[in-house]
Amino acid sequence: MLASALCRVAGQPTIPIYPGVERPLLLQHEHQPTAPQQEALVRWPHETDFPRGSAIEFLRQTIRKHPGEIVLLATGPMTNIALLFSVDPAIPSLLKGLVLMCGAFSAEQQQRTPVEWNALCDPHAAAIVYRTPIAQHRSIGLDVTMQVVMPAEQVRERFIQTPLLHPVLDFAEVWFRERPQIIFHDPLAAVSIFDEQVCQWTRTVVEVHLQDDELLGQTQILTTDKSAQHEIAHMVDPARFFERYFRVFSMKS
């Protein structure tokens, strides 16, 4: 419903929205069963009826119709992507690339956050995704996303200038009750698809820890090598990111 509200404000109410899988593959608990921002929906027109059980098949058919053209962006738990790769093992070879907002890769960041949220919510799915060979397999972890941050007052000042961001600001106000700022985790991953120079990348091999309950889901770097299958962001240009981000919304307003 949040996505539908955004599509309506953008003048694109017919963009298809397919709810994904609601629970992790193996874990018996959910870390975030509800979306607190939903309370703002009363102020934004939105659809309430969506096709259930169709998300994986929609992804599969779309990628098969456009081989080598699609960069798949994953900005939440990896459950749907892991199921997609398991249901149709040919899909990874048909992708142009995969970009994840997932993981924490530096020792310093892992001291502060041993397991990043998206990996924590479904570590077994994350493990499947990282074990899957893909032509371009990129991750932007907390090491980098934590550098693109904006305090609440500045968010209000910037977002109010752009009609497309008005509902986002409304959703953010729920967040600001407990936190003084927003970190642009997922938007950075999205921007990197269209401007890969917003980050600097290191080739490596990533493994997801599945043995120790306390570190379940931790992303571990096994080796750094120019031929390794994964690329992880190790630096970001925050000014370049914010310029690209706000330019897109200004163009569409």
TrEMBL record:
InterPro entries: Inosine/uridine_hydrolase_dom (IPR001910), IUNH (IPR023186), Ribo_hydro-like (IPR036452)
Keyword annotations from UniProtKB, A to Z: Glycosidase, Hydrolase
Domain of life: Bacteria
SUPFAM superfamilies per the UniProt record, alphabetical: Nucleoside hydrolase
GO biological process: purine nucleoside catabolic process
Gene Ontology MF terms in the entry: purine nucleosidase activity
Pfam families: IU_nuc_hydro
GO cellular component, one term: cytosol
Residues in Inosine/uridine-preferring nucleoside hydrolase domain copies: 4-243
Protein name according to UniProt: Inosine/uridine-preferring nucleoside hydrolase domain-containing protein
